[in-house]
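Re-running the complex after MR caught last week's input typo. The corrected sequence lines follow. Everything else is unchanged.
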Amino acid sequence: MATAFVPASRISTMISPAEAYRIVLDAALPLPARRVPLLEALGKPLAEPVRADRNYPPFRRAMMDGYAVSLASAGRTIDVIGRRPAGRTTSSDIVTAQGCVEIATGAACPPGTDAVVRKEHVRCDGHRVILPAVIEPGRHIAEPGTECSKGEGFLKAGDIATPLAIAALASAGRRDVAVVPAPRMAVIVTGEELVGGGQDLRDGQIRDANGPMLTALAAAFGLAPPECRRVGDDRIAIQAALEASSDCDLVVLSGGASVGTLDFAPRVLADWDAEILFHKVRQKPGKPLLLARRGASLVFGLPGNPLACHFCFCRYVQAAAAKMCGRGPAITGEGRLAAPLQPDRGRTFFVPARFDREPSTPGAWQIHPLRGVSSADIFHSHQANAYVEVPRGAEELPAGTTLAVSLFAHVA
Amino acid sequence: MATAFVPASRISTMISPAEAYRIVLDAALPLPARRVPLLEALGKPLAEPVRADRNYPPFRRAMMDGYAVSLASAGRTIDVIGRRPAGRTTSSDIVTAQGCVEIATGAACPPGTDAVVRKEHVRCDGHRVILPAVIEPGRHIAEPGTECSKGEGFLKAGDIATPLAIAALASAGRRDVAVVPAPRMAVIVTGEELVGGGQDLRDGQIRDANGPMLTALAAAFGLAPPECRRVGDDRIAIQAALEASSDCDLVVLSGGASVGTLDFAPRVLADWDAEILFHKVRQKPGKPLLLARRGASLVFGLPGNPLACHFCFCRYVQAAAAKMCGRGPAITGEGRLAAPLQPDRGRTFFVPARFDREPSTPGAWQIHPLRGVSSADIFHSHQANAYVEVPRGAEELPAGTTLAVSLFAHVA
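Corrected-run output:
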């Protein structure tokens, strides 16, 4: 295993968080659309318009349980000459002034039908029914094509596949539909000090938090659970893990992107013919953030520190994933600080926070910073739902200061 | 197959939508908690508090890549006597005024360390380093237990398992955690006129939209994909499908809950020893809604009409599922009608709508009703994200009227 110390790598020029964000969006390209089964399309924007294969309803549909009647029979007592359940048209009954047909909601009206009279509005007399004096023409009948006519486009490209859209697709005989699929993601967690759940800890070791966290972040965003590989601080092992992830659209590497002498990621990526798009961002946390591109894949190098890793995933990796699958950007807002906050002099400071309605002022939102005792502290920030962006500065920001927030795209 | 017509069933007393909602919430009981793997807990409220198994950090952790030094060596040029990568404590080096140790972020500080000096703040001179004149005691060292001390509760029962909470659980050695699981749901779609996707249509037949829609609604709510059975209007087949679903917490039966003579559901449920809690609600759509209880299972009878089925799922089935798994109620709000709307004289009218910000008035929301041409029209309402509740009345409500909405709990 290659574990020798080498001198710190060259100092790269740091870019601003806004510039890094722009480079991420430029580098992330929309994935090609493909046909997926309807349920897999749920929540995704459609990549094709969809037209009706026939009229809807396809026939004169009874909209109520009752009797298919002719207008000429209004106010009369007439024979029930047949019964028509939904889904069956085998009967040859024809509705006339002398005879009506008992009909179920959803059934096709027999020839001669002018209206359907609701079951509750007739009186039964053996095999005869007494009809109301006034019958409105066309009442409780949906005419063919009135909901959607054959060839009409009922879904546009870009429409979201909601459950109702899936119902319309299924109605129109579609079993699959073209969507831009969610990107495939691989996670590689590096760090000699990390052990997996269930293993014994030796002195100086800690348990891996980033693997489970990144998997949960991917799932919360709606991605398929990524394959998660844990490797030591070892060039050959990292190279092998990258190679195994090369069919993924996004590779998230945690740890190993800083100036530490064991931090191989930038060199391993260069050896792997990946083009490094940026390395180091003027932000706290997440200064060592790295973005590389290899073919159609984007590789993010995220800090090993769990909070910094979480922040970089929410701000940058999610933005790339959203662009790849045609989703909009993260939801942003503004609120007032519920407690004072000390900015950083040199870097934009992103602080996990709870973003909530202000109980006293309708329409106003407040920001409760949830900073732990250190940037590695994940024990005091787990109820955060947003990052608040604190511009560089020297002076403490008092409670009440208005700041911008980005909401997590979490399920919670 | 039993398809004979029988007289319309007795008229049941209709209850209000508010009363039906209250009965649903009373009948839905919280499911017992169980331990699930961390990823399965994502987004769910925890059913147990969680305490730290040891101190975090567990040792004096270096927070930067640099040199572990003694305060006595400030301003001096001293030997680098060893190297300490993260995860290894095998070296027996002791830091003194004459010798420091190169250290990586995340490593345990050697005995004698007073501070870590960042790599960027020293000058290297072969195997010696020139240290800054002033070294702050404790700088860049996280002391044991400062993030979380052994035995401290870092998660409470009721806290949501966010990705950061999952990171904290994994750090503390937990591989599973107690949550209230999502209810198991079964779907039974009835209707002789319905055929599945990919099958040929005969005259009078239509394709099943409710099966795919209910499956998507369950998935959008975060439930495991329900088993979906499609049966004809046939008592024996419905009974068999209910029997096969009897280990589920929620059974959703679509079609067959109205007064139509082929609508067996109420009688089949009574034969199956299910207690009918209500049948028929003073609402449009969804008047035939039925709720029954059998042991710990709730059985919903939903109208076959896809829009009515969708509405009843969103308002009633989701409320029961949320109560069972400890989630809050649906998000509600108020907005102004963007177009006039005609209420129903006799029933509360729930209209699918798009609920959006009003572009001209910050903080205000508007309601765009998305009524299709009929209550069975799913082609013109698929971009709805809410139901607007229109109280009973005779007069048309003008644009600008303020009304209450319930948002769907959809992924879109």
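None of the earlier attempt is carried over here. The helical segments of chain B are 17-27, 38-41, 163-171, 210-220, 235-244, 265-271, 306-324. Chain B touches chain A through 114 residues (CB under 8 Å).
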